Fold:
Amino acid sequence: MIGTGDRLVMFLVDGREGLNALDEIVAERLRRYGKPIILIVNKTDGIDPQIATTEFHQLGLGEPLPISASHRRGIATLWTGVLHALPSYESSEIDTGSSVKFAAIGRPNVGKSTLVNTILGTERVIA
Structure:
């Protein structure tokens, strides 16, 4: 069944502020977890996404994905990455009565609440 042991980590960082020591600490801990990680660089609106993501390659977590949660830019690409990172299931294998557990990981003020609200399509999280 989907959700039984499937894990995917979405690690959110701030593209405007850039890489910092706390990001490196979190990345090291996440690597030890041994699960697939999508590195999301938020707040890339109005700046070149390639420049905003460059220094985050140092974390060694794969290709950073630039998004702007507040402007919904990059959200479709994020969903594609999520779908590719998780195992695929036949519709008969999905328990529609089960819930999805979700954790937004990142240092303060990187846009976790904004991303969760954007994903859900409603104001569910207030920072």
Observations:
- Strands lie at 9-14, 37-42, 65-66.
- The chain has four helices and three strands.
